[in-house]
Each structure stands twice: as C-alpha cells, then as structure tokens.
Write a structure and sequence with these properties.
- By secondary structure, this protein is α/β, with parallel strands linked by helices.
- The protein is built from 13 helices and eleven strands.
- The strands form three sheets. It has a seven-stranded mixed β-sheet with strand order 1-2-9-6-5-3-4, sandwiched between helices. Strands 7-8 form a two-stranded antiparallel ribbon. The chain has a two-stranded antiparallel ribbon with strand order 10-11.
- Helix 5 runs antiparallel to helix 6 and helix 5 runs parallel beside helix 10.
- The termini are far apart.
- Bound molecules: nicotinamide-adenine-dinucleotide.
- The site of nicotinamide-adenine-dinucleotide has 28 residues, from helix 3, helix 4 and strand 8.
- The site of nicotinamide-adenine-dinucleotide (NAD) has 28 residues, from helix 3, helix 4 and strand 8.
Length: about 350
C-alpha cells in the first residue's frame, strides 16, 4: 500500500512492506548512503541486502539526547569525511527522535540532500516521519532548530513494533486515536473496546489503523505543508498535552500527555455543548482501554494554564484550542472562559 504526500515535492509512504526490500530498491543508482540509527538499535541494521551503494552506519545517542547540535556536528564531520555529495542519501531508522535528526542532517548538508525515513515506533510511523518537519533540540527547548525538508520516501514496516513496550505502543496509539476523532470515524470504530494486547495480536487491524492514521496526516500536511492553518487540527488534545509534557519534565510519553489532553477536551466540549455525553465518554473509554492515562495532578492547573497560553498554536495572548463538533468535524475555540477550562480540568484531575 502506498500513500502519496504532496509537499515541496511528492513522496510515497510505503506501508506494510519489508523495510530491507524497499530500502534495497531505493539504493539502486546511489553511490553512497548513511544510515542514522540509535546506538541502542544499531544491531537491527546488520545484514542489509547487498547493494551497489556504499552503506555507512552512523550510531547516535538514543532518544532526545541524540537530537542535539553536538550529535549533528558529528554527523556533518562523518558526512564530510565520507565525501557525501548532493546525490548521496541519508536514511533515518528509529523513533521520531532519530528521524527528526536524520531529516535535519539531510536538510542542512549541502543545502539539502535526499533522505528516507524508516520509522520504528508507532508514533514515528503515524506522526513524526510524515510531514517534512525535521529538527534538533536546543538547551532552550525542544525542536527549536529545524527545517521543513520532506523525505523522498517513508517506509513503514509494522514488524518493527513487535519489540516496543506496551507503554510505547500505547503512546503511539494515542496519535492514532486523535486522527480518528479529527477525521476518520472508522479508526474509532476499529479500535472499539480493544486493549493494547488485542491490537498487537491483530496485524490486519493494526495495519489498517496505521494506514488510516497516515492517510489523515498525509491529507492534512498535503493541504498545509508549512503549518499555516489546516495543519493545526493535528493539535487536537495537544495544547494541554504539551503543557503536561513540560510540567512532568517529560516523564510521561508525548502520547500519554496527548491522551490526557483529549480527555480534557472531551469534558470541555461537553460542557460547551459541542459534543454529546456519549462522545465524551467514548474519548475516555477508548483511551483507558488502551491503558493510556486520562487524568493528571489537580494542583498543576495554574502552571498548565500558563503554558497553554504559550503553546505554539496560541497567538499573542490568545489561547486557541482545536475542537470537534462530532467525529471528523473540527473547529477552533479562542479564549474560552478560564472558569470553564478549570471546570473541565477538574473532571480529569486527580
Ligand atoms: N517531525 C514531526 O512532525 C514530529 C511529530 C511528532 C513527534 N516528533 C518527535 O518525535 C520524537 C518522539 O518520537 P517517538 O515517540 O518515536 O520516541 P523516540 O524516538 O524517543 O523513541 C522512544 C524509544 O523507543 C526506542 N525504540 C524505537 N524503536 C523501537 C523498536 N522498534 N523497538 C524497541 N524500542 C524502540 C528508542 O530507542 C527510544 O528509546 C520527539 O523527538 C518528537 O519531537 C516529531
């Protein structure tokens, strides 16, 4: 299955194929390629099919610590030493942290060379690898240095997900649930009352969910590559989610924070009469069944509210939230009454 994304150029997201087979095809006609992979996962990129391209492996620190200027400097030195030219290829194999880093290395080398994303987490496959946003972190914050630079292909091989912990698998599924609420009722129907173990055991359903979630993201980013307005819908549940991420100092996974953010949005939308009690309950049930958190500390509210005003989707002193008026019908809410926000938060706070 291939889903095309239209951006500064169009590229395929190849789903449910062997990543080694697909990568071998993409290496045809290349002289050199560099695989960027986390040190922790270096052993998974052994035994690649023989290729006419010289394939180098650049192991980088795992997770967020790899998304740094220090690592990027090292990659630039490696690329220079290996004589990387404009026709060579960078391949990022890993979670969103690695594909963000590999994409930015490709964006910045010789003013932009081709790169391929091979996401190995659910979150990476349905979110980070799609859409052309690449970045590293600065000491002042996450993703502050980056570029829009689309990959030339994304290869999604769900067999990578077998080694994920249930916790990481579920965190990625939070983004799948989000795409369901903002755009695709079938996703919500397919997940139904599933637990994580059900989804892990049913490859057919898993592939359909991942494909549908990618299709939603591909459609949204194709209509708004540089994040002007349409792309904002992907932020459903994220305004509070980002605030929680900061507040808990990244102890919770991004997807877990988004899950709490969606549970909060359910309460807020219910109190504003935007959605039915049934749909609000469906938010909580689907997330809880997947083992995702739907509550957060009560005393954190003042700090969370302050962070929500600073969220990148808020402008100036305006707090903007993405809302739904039913599954697949999105809208925006500006500057809701803080008492209503607090009342909704009280319903999801412990
Ligand atoms: N570019 C975008 O549009 C975009 C969108 C969303 C998130 N992101 C970025 O993505 C990153 C989060 O991505 P993530 O959730 O994939 O986390 P991650 O990349 O930090 O990976 C989480 C952990 O899972 C491990 N891992 C990866 N694949 C595995 C596998 N198959 N089996 C076992 N362990 C595996 C990693 O080594 C790491 O320790 C953040 O840096 C975030 O900023 C980017």
């Amino acid at each position: 299955m291939i889903i095309d994304v239209q951006a500064e150029r169009s590229y395929p997201v190849i789903i449910d194929s062997s990543w080694k087979v697909e990568l071998a095809k993409l290496l045809v006609g290349r002289d050199r390629a560099a695989i960027i992979v986390s040190e922790k996962m270096e052993s998974s990129v052994k035994d690649l099919p023989v290729s006419e391209a010289e394939v180098l492996v650049f192991p980088v620190p795992d997770g967020e610590s790899g998304k740094s200027s220090a690592t990027l400097n090292k990659i630039w030195d490696w690329l220079a030493a290996a004589g990387f030219t404009r026709s060579d290829l960078i391949i990022g194999i890993g979670g969103g942290a690695v594909t963000d880093l590999a994409g930015f290395a490709a964006a910045s080398w010789l003013r932009g060379i081709d790169w391929v994303a091979i996401p190995t987490t659910v979150a990476g496959a349905v979110d980070a690898a799609i859409g052309g946003k690449t970045a590293i972190n600065s000491e002042y914050g996450k993703n502050l240095i980056g570029a829009f630079h689309s990959p030339s292909a994304v290869i999604v091989d769900v067999s990578w997900f077998d080694s994920l912990s249930d916790r990481d698998f579920a965190a990625g599924m939070a983004e799948v649930v989000k795409t369901g609420f903002i755009s695709d009722a079938k996703i919500i129907e397919l997940i139904g009352k599933s637990k994580i173990s059900d989804l892990r055991a049913n490859r057919t359903v898993l592939i359909e969910l991942v494909t549908r979630a990618i299709a939603v993201k591909a459609k949204v980013v194709s209509s708004d590559f540089k994040e002007n307005f349409d792309r904002e819908v992907l932020n459903y549940g994220h305004t509070l989610g980002h605030a929680i991420e900061l507040h808990c100092k990244y102890d919770l996974r991004h997807g877990e924070c988004v899950a709490i953010g969606m549970a909060f949005m359910a309460q807020l939308q219910l109190s504003l009469g935007l959605i039915t009690a049934e749909l609000a309950q469906q938010h909580v049930d689907i997330l809880k069944n997947l083992g995702l958190p739907t509550t957060y500390q009560h005393q954190a509210w003042p700090s969370l509210l302050a962070s929500m005003y600073l969220d990148k989707k808020s402008r100036g002193k305006t707090l903007r939230l993405v809302t739904i008026k039913g599954i697949g019908i999105t809208d925006r809410l500006e500057n809701p009454d803080e008492k209503i926000l607090l009342a909704a938060y009280e319903k999801v706070s412990s």
